[in-house]
Each structure stands twice: as C-alpha cells, then as structure tokens.
Specification:
The chain is of the alpha/beta class. It is built from 10 helices and 5 strands. Helices cover about 50% and strands about 10% of the residues.
Length: about 270
Amino acid sequence: MFTKITEQASLYNDLEKKSVLELLQDINTEDQKVAMATQKAIPQIEKLVSQIVPRMKEGGRIFYMGAGTSGRLGVLDASEIPPTFGMPPTYIIGLIAGGDTALRNPVENAEDDTKRGWEELLEHDICELDTVIGIAASGTTPYVIGALHEARAHGCLTGCITSNPDTPMAAECDVPIEMIVGPEYVTGSSRMKSGTGQKMILNMISTSVMIQLGRVKGNKMVNMQLSNQKLVDRGTRMIVEELGLSYDVAKEMLLKYGSVKKACDAYKANL
C-alpha cells in the first residue's frame, strides 16, 4: 500500500481558534513549499515535454484528464492556449469527470467510472500521436486511471501529475510527475497546495510546449488573439518595437493581419 500523503493530518491544529492573520501566515508558509516541490519534479516535467513536442509537430494533441479541482485546472490551462498562443482549441483539450457541469457543480460518482474517460477520448478520435496527462492529487481517481491505462495500451504517450509517491495512476504512465507538497493546511483539502502545484506544472508544460512549437518570439506572445483593447494595444506596441513604425501604422497593420507575427512577416516580405 502506497503512502497517501494527501490524506495525512495537517501540521496545524485548532484552526478555528486562530486569528485571520495567523491563518493567512500559516497558509502562506505552506504555500512556499509548493515551488520547491515543483522544482524537484523538473526532470520528470522535462522528460514529458521533450516527448510531447515531436508528437505535436506531427499533428498530435494533449489531453488533460481529471476530476474535481484537478479536472478544473486542466480545463483552465487548456482554455488559455487559444488566446495566449493563437492555437486552435483542438490542440490542448481539458476533460473533466462529469463533463462541463462539473466545472461548477460536483457530479455524483463521476470520478468513479473507470470506463468513461477512455470513452471520451474515443469521442475525440484519439490516436498514437496524442498525449494523455492525468491530474489527480491522490493518484487514485478511477476515471483518470482507466483512461490512462487504455491510452497507453493504444500507443499514446501518457503522463500524470500527483502529490503522492508510487500511486496507481503513476503505474499507468510513461512519465509520472510526482510533486510531493506534504499534508494540506486543512487536512485532505487538495484544492490548496496540491492544486497550486498542479497549476504551476500545467503552466510549465503548456508554455514550454508552445514556445518549442514557435508560438513565442523573444519573450513576446506574437500569436495571441486580439480579443480586447488591452491585447490590441500590447500587440501594437510589439510591432512598434520590432519594426520601428509609428503606433497608428502599427495598429492598422495589426488589425489588418490579425496577429503580431503575421503583421511583422507581411511587412518584412514587402521590404
């Protein structure tokens, strides 16, 4: 039996007797452990990303799969890819046990269905070029484990993010990422440190993959969607910096071509 650190008792007690300041200081003290735990997992994260990139260059996709907080964080990260990097929403897909309803409300027994996750992947025509990343602090979520088992059996690359060592979920993965943050401040509340660490690692995976796929230039989001005035202004200033044009001309080009990269490429092609 593996050690379920995520269910161990909090290092703190009598929380209801503490002042607001004490609560906030204690939570912050615990949160500081998350970055260190994530740092220790970098070799595994690197291994996973290094295998994802060539697959995506051949047309592969990433599927995040989780339940509850873990599922919501996967959907969140996936939903940020189109506006940030200008990629279609079909490249990184977040699936949560219980479907979109579960984003706001718990769906009874959804995470206990070992078959549903794979059925959902089949609905997306999953193939050998795809990567499935399970997210579960406990590492025991049946919905995720079942999907990973079938995905691996069908030749997909599989990875996971968990807060416990040697979990059943990790056993189903090519590249398990174990981020050991210790007991939660509120015993068993893995929406706290585990959730924070999951968000950090998802950021690392998706951002590094997108950079490797050429969606960033220098340090700029040159392919971002122009979905509001703030982003139009940011994109315009990128073009001003890159090409030395006036703000008005740069903005006109940005709106004409739809992205910083396309505007800059078009301008340089006409020189």
